[in-house]
């Protein structure tokens, strides 16, 4: 295939056009965040960990599986034109987390749309009771953030997905579990804790 690109004028033209499309896609994303270049997953994570420190909670550790799950979910939202925890075809946040290879005991997802400032998105989550509970839940140990840009409902949008979790231990003491956790584990039900 590479020889086709090297030897053919049409192949060179296709290669140049493909490169231009790829580069223009990068610039599109860059322009979306050019005003707020600090809107990066690592900055959002830093601000979330600062919030947790304010409440004497341990810092969350970045997990590559949760990062992949969050980024996959952000792209899925753009590609399938929705903004919800569950996709129109029934794909759940837990599906993204499990398919990334993260076997969780506890997990949560926070979503945001059209933010381009790390402090603003974390502040918005902290004033929302359910999102705040997720961020300040002492059971969570890991974090991943994904950001994707594209059209949602016909408008240019930036979608931010935060995934939180605690991995299922390979072995644990049954006496450390609540009755609800024991039943859930026996039935293999993946629900958020009350």
UniProtKB/TrEMBL annotation:
SUPFAM superfamilies named in the record: PR-1-like
UniProt-listed Pfam families: CAP
InterPro entries in the record: CAP_dom, CAP_sf
Residues of the SCP domain: 46-155
Gene3D superfamilies in UniProt: CAP
PANTHER family to which the protein is assigned, alphabetical: SCP DOMAIN-CONTAINING PROTEIN (PTHR31157)
Protein's UniProt name: Calcium-chelating exported protein
């Amino acid at each position: 295939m590479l020889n086709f690109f090297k030897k053919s004028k049409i192949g060179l033209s296709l290669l140049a056009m493909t490169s231009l499309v790829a580069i223009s896609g990068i610039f599109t994303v860059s322009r979306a965040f050019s005003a707020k270049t600090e809107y990066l997953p690592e900055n959002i994570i830093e601000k979330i960990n600062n919030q947790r420190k304010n409440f004497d909670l341990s810092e969350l550790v970045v997990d590559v599986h949760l990062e992949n799950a969050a980024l996959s979910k952000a792209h899925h939202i753009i590609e399938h034109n929705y903004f919800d925890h569950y996709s129109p075809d029934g794909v759940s946040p837990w599906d993204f987390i499990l398919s990334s290879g993260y076997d969780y005991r506890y997990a949560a997802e926070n979503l945001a749309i059209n933010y381009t400032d790390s402090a603003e998105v974390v502040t918005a989550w902290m004033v929302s009771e359910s999102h705040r509970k997720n961020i300040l839940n002492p059971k969570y140990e890991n974090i991943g953030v994904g950001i994707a840009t594209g059209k949602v409902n016909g408008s240019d949008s930036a979608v931010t997905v935060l995934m939180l979790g605690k991995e299922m231990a390979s072995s644990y003491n049954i006496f450390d579990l609540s009755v609800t956790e024991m039943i859930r584990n026996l039935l293999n039900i993946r629900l958020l804790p009350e």
